[in-house]
C-alpha cells in the first residue's frame, strides 16, 4: 500500500549480507532501533503487515542477506483509560523512565473487573508520554507486581527505553530483591529454588510448580531473621514468572505470611500448636495481605549505561508486623 495514513510508521530496510541466516522476527526484535518486540513482530506478520521483497512474510521467514523488508505498524486505537488524580511515590524520574514505589492494594494496570484506581490511571494523569510497547491498556508498564505486593516498579516513557529494559529483564541483567516473611522455619539459612512454574490445572487464576512442563524459574534466598513461627528472608529472583516467590515457597511448605491464595493465612496456621494460635491471629490481623515487598532494583540505565540502584524501605504495615514479632520474641 502506498498510503501511510492508517500507520503510525513504516519501517523499510535491506538486510545486510555476509551473516548467518536469521529469523525475521528474531532479527527485528533484537535490533533496538526498530523498537519492536519479537512478539509484536509476530503479530504484524500474522496480520500481513510485513513483506519481504514485496511478498507477505511467512511465520518462520529466514533472512539470508539482501532482502528488502517493509514493516507497517498500525496506529494504536484510542485508549479508553482515563487519567486519575492518584498520588504517586516517585523514587526516580528522568527523560526515559520512572521508578515508582507501589503501595500494597494498588493494581498495576486495568484488567477484568478493574478499570480504574490502577497505577496506569495515576501515571496517565502524571506524565504525558508513556511507551506503547505493551499495548494501549498497559502504557509504560515494563514489569508488574501483584496487587497486594508493595515496592518498586519500573515504568518506561518511550518504546526504545521499554524495549531495552525488557531485554535486560530477559537477559537476567536486572537485579530484583525482595523482603518476605514466610511461615515456618527453613532448614537452610541460604539456598535456591529452581522449579518450573505454569498455570495451575486446578485453578486457572493461580500458578503452580510444574516440573518438565512449566517455564524455568529460579529464586535465591538468605535468612535475615528467625522468629518462633516465621522466617524473614532476603530474596533475589532471576526470572520473573507470575507469582514466582509465592508459588516457590508455598511448594516448600513455607507460604508467604498472610497470602490467602497460596496457604499463608488460615491453611498453614491450622497446623500450629494451639498455644501459638493467639499470637498468629494477632499477627494476621495486623497484615491483611502477603508480607512481600520489592525492595531493590539494580541495572544499567538504557540511555547512559551507568549502573543505577534504587531501594524502597519496608512500608508501615510490614514494619509494624516485624515490631510485634520482635516484642513477643
Q: Per CATH, what is the topology of the largest domain?
A: Pseudouridine synthase
Order of helices and strands: EEHHEEEEEEHEHEEEEEEHHHEEH
Q: Helical amount among residues, as a percent range?
A: 10-25%
Q: What structural category arises from helix and sheet content? A: alpha+beta
Number of strands: 17
The residue ranges in which pLDDT falls below 50 over 5 or more consecutive positions are none
How can the largest sheet be summarized?
Answer: 9 strands, mixed
Explain briefly what this protein structure is.
The protein is α+β, with helices and mostly antiparallel strands. It has helices at 24-30, 38-46, 119-126, 159-170, 244-251, 266-269, 274-286, 316-328, and strands spanning 7-14, 22-23, 50-52, 55-56, 62-63, 68-74, 90-93, 97-102, 150-156, 175-183, 190-194, 197-199, 207-209, 218-226, 230-237, 292-300, 307-311.
What does this structure look like?
- The chain is of the alpha+beta class and 329 residues long.
- The chain folds into 3 domains: 68 residues, Structural Genomics Hypothetical 15.5 Kd Protein In mrcA-pckA Intergenic Region, Chain A, CATH 3.10.290.10; 95 residues, Pseudouridine synthase; 131 residues, Pseudouridine synthase (2-Layer Sandwich).
- 22% of the residues lie in helices and 28% in strands.
- It is built from 8 helices and 17 strands.
- The longest helix is centred in the C-terminal third of the chain and has 13 residues.
- A hairpin with a 2-residue loop joins strand 3 and strand 4.
- Strands 7, 8, 9, 10, 11, 14, 15, 16 and 17 form a 9-stranded mixed sheet that branches. A 4-stranded antiparallel sheet has the order 1-6-3-4.
